[in-house]
Design goal:
two-stranded antiparallel ribbon, mainly alpha, globular, 10 helices, 302 residues, 61% helix
């Protein structure tokens, strides 16, 4: 049977986020602790109530490993597609076999070359910026996250690159490539600008968070959670989540002809929405003086 494994995996991820969120909100007291605490511990400073979870936790600072992996992976993918598209390089049979196994043997060349290149370039900027943030800007606490969440991070980025090239011209047997880079549409250019703005605002937000744990000389003096101010934090509790959602929506617009990538965008939206809600609730419970006018994710609205 021809199955798109990547599509199926991200549908399951998204459904897990939605169902666990609904269950934890309405019947949390009657559920096992594992499904809800595993996720909330990844998002906020939450003390686990179950020793099973503790035995499978890893340091939250390992979050940087996602990007130490995805940064080089994005560049290797870019070099690989340029080798194919610009120099008509030969694709090893094992690549075709891998993509057929993960996306199905009936996959089609849905994404034009220029859109593939544009999306991978944006992902290179985003991933390498995240490498810089997590290695040189973020100040991680001593909190833990569940190892399942840790592994999902690697699946997420591997899935992104594989699903994009797996539905692009040139990476399907007997498909032709047609590189016309100068025919970028106005919408595509707007999407690029919005992605760059979102990535910059994400970086700015991380600088704001890092300064809460540093003194004026840049030395780390605390790992406690404090209320952030400035930038998008003036309006919402979760600018990191908002900017991540925007980036993936813009990538979906650029890759609108794709089939699988949009399921990754849906997963990102559900994941970031739950992160934003949990963070907002935690801020309000932890800090009595938390700004009441500050919204969850959308300025002035929600």
């Amino acid at each position: 049977m021809d199955i798109n494994i990547i599509c199926l995996v991200f549908i399951i991820f998204a459904l897990f986020i939605v169902l666990s969120g609904l269950l934890s909100k309405y019947i949390h007291a009657y559920l096992p602790i594992i499904p809800t605490d595993m996720y909330s511990k990844y998002v906020i400073a939450n003390n686990t109530r179950n020793m099973i979870l503790t035995n499978f936790n890893v340091p939250k600072r390992w979050y940087k490993h996602f990007y130490i992996f995805s940064g080089p992976a994005s560049t290797i993918t870019l070099c690989f597609i340029l080798y194919k598209f610009l120099f008509n390089g030969n694709i090893p049979e094992i690549i075709f076999a891998l993509l057929d196994m993960l996306l199905g043997t009936s996959r089609k060349p849905l994404i034009p070359v220029k859109n593939v290149i544009l999306a991978i370039v944006i992902l290179n900027v985003h991933c390498w910026k995240r490498v810089y943030e997590t290695c040189y800007v973020n100040v991680f606490s001593d909190q833990k996250m569940n190892i399942i969440i840790y592994l999902i991070g690697f699946i997420h980025y591997a899935g992104i690159f594989l699903c994009i090239i797996g539905e692009s011209e040139g990476f399907i047997r007997d498909s032709n490539t047609n590189v016309i880079l100068y025919k970028l549409t106005t919408i595509e250019l707007i999407c690029v600008l919005i992605c760059l703005w979102s990535s910059y605002m994400q970086l700015k937000s991380n600088f704001i968070l890092a300064r809460l744990r540093k003194n004026q000389h840049g030395d780390i003096v605390s790992k406690e959670h404090k209320i952030p101010f400035g930038g998008l934090y003036k309006y919402i509790s979760s600018p990191l989540q908002l900017t991540e959602i925007i980036i993936y929506i813009m990538l979906s617009v650029i890759l609108w002809q794709a089939s699988t990538f949009h399921y990754i965008t849906i997963w990102v939206i559900t994941n970031q929405l739950k992160c934003a809600i949990l963070s907002h609730e935690w801020y309000h419970k932890t800090f009595k003086n938390y700004p009441k006018e500050r919204k969850i994710l959308i300025p002035y609205i929600w």
